[in-house]
């Protein structure tokens, strides 16, 4: 297996993680019968975005790098806000 094939597989994995967040959000919303964004959405965003950023850097694609890099800031900030929020008992 070549390095190029491994990077392609990593890129596909990143995209799968990133896309899974929409399934998680949809299922959570359907269960509550209202639009919700569960913490798993942000964790999958962070995981998928990180893998995709590594892939974008390997591809040397500045547009892709900027997009994923900015996204990681947003996902991290949302997770920080969730961790700082008071817990309901």
UniProtKB/TrEMBL annotation:
Pfam families, per the entry: LAB_N
Keyword field contains Cell membrane: no
GO biological process, one term: lipid A biosynthetic process
Keywords assigned: Membrane, Transmembrane, Transmembrane helix
Regions annotated as coiled coil: none
InterPro entries found in the cross-reference section: Lipid_A_biosynth_N
Lipid A biosynthesis N-terminal domain span: 10-81
Lineage top rank: taxon: Bacteria
GO MF annotation terms: lipid-A-disaccharide synthase activity
Protein's UniProt name: Lipid A biosynthesis N-terminal domain-containing protein
Source species of the chain: Rubellimicrobium rubrum
Organism taxonomic ancestry: Bacteria, Pseudomonadati, Pseudomonadota, Alphaproteobacteria, Rhodobacterales
